[in-house]
Amino acid sequence: MIVKNPRFEISAVSPKQYPHNGLPEIVLVGKSNVGKSSFINTMLNRKSIARTSNTPGKTRQINFYNIDEQFYFVDLPGYGYSEMSKSEQLKVGHFIEEYLSKSKYISCIVLLLDIRHKPTENDRLMYRFLIDNNFPFFVITNKADKIAITKVNKAVQEICDFLNPMHDIVFLPFSAERKIYVENAWIEIEKYLK
After folding, report:
1. Which range marks the domain in which residue 74 is found?
2. CB 138, CB 107: distance < 8 Å
3. Cβ proximity of 51 and 67 under 8 Å
4. What are the start-end ranges of the H helices in the chain?
5. For the chain, how many structural domains are there in total?
6. Do 30 and 36 contact (CB within 8 A), yes or no?
7. What is the distance of C-alpha 8 from the center of its chain?
8. 3-state DSSP call for residue 71?
9. Which of 38, 75, 92, 130 could be 176's S-S partner, Cβ–Cβ 3.0 to 4.6 Å?
10. Are 11 and 63 contacting, i.e. CB atoms less than 8 angstroms apart?
11. Exposed, middle or buried by CB within 10 Å (0-12, 13-18, 19+), for 20?
């Protein structure tokens, strides 16, 4: 996909602040520090449209990125950040749950996992939540540049086997450093924009 004019549109904490212009929403979920902002920047071929941080748990709002007036990337706050206070975690959890239950424009959810690690309990809970609520989704195993390129496919396969023994959900590798994975991610996203 050729992206010409992506822009950050709004940060929201309640449904009345969500955009209501009917554009489809591609929603990014994942634990804190899994690289959702880097994923957005790499997919859009922009350096810093989404702010990245070395400090996990920075995103406390729902960020909407308008992609050429065609669709949104919606970046949900990361879950499972242990140094966030319990009340912050509850608030963030509420934002996520409220958005997922109230938005009428979700076309697809992209669950980002870290390719280097077995999915956490929070990852498994999110995966089950998406299945149980019949959300269309696929999985990006991010940070593929952190392992040898020859081990990437095996690592993706192991995560898929662990979470999805039926192999009926798409699992893809990704890396903000190695741009070789971008096209496959776009191919998958475009299926949900037709």
Report:
1. 6-191
2. no
3. no
4. 36-44, 86-102, 121-132, 152-163, 182-191
5. 1
6. yes
7. 16
8. strand
9. 38
10. yes
11. exposed
- Domain with residue 124: its CATH number is 3.40.50.300
Give the rounded distance of the alpha carbon of 81 from its chain centre.
16
Quick: pLDDT tens for 44-91: 999 889 876 555 545 578 999 999 999 999 999 988 765 667 777 777
Q: What is the reported pTM?
A: 0.93
Cα–Cα nearest to 49, from 61, 36, 40: 40
Chain centroid to CA 143: how far?
13
Sequence-ordered alpha helix ranges (H) in 2-151: 36-44, 86-102, 121-132
Contact 102, 15 (CB under 8 A): yes
The 8-class DSSP code of residue 92 comes to H
Is 1 within a domain? no
